[in-house]
Amino acid sequence: MSDPAPPDAPTPDDLQPRISRRALPAYIARNRERHEAQNEADRERLEPRVDEHIRAHGLALDFLDESHQWLADHFDFDLTGDTRPAAVWQMAGRCIGLSRLTVDALSHGYTTEVLHLARAIHEADRLLDVFTDPEEADLLRRWLAD
What is the rounded CA–CA span in Å between residue 123 and residue 119? Predict the structure, then answer.
């Protein structure tokens, strides 16, 4: 026989409430109209500025992409080797890629959705900082071992 549910456990009705169709309440429709008018005014004022920031970041990332490729083309280190230069080059590429993805998402209007990408960029950037520190070898060795 199964144990009874604890007294504070949700009942099946708590997890699956009855859902029925309803008309949109008038106050919500009014609020949406008012907010949409404000959003339109904000878009007219802010979108050109946001677009310019996105364009500037895209240009910076183009430069970083080209510089990253230039390093691979003009230096003789093994890009996939288990060395500090390879780890730095790989992590820098990861930072550039994540940043490009973030800028692209922002250019398509995604905002809250990029918070996870920003966190990933931050973590990759912190690793890149550790990888370039000649005094830090333990974390670098662990990363290279994977």
Answer: 6
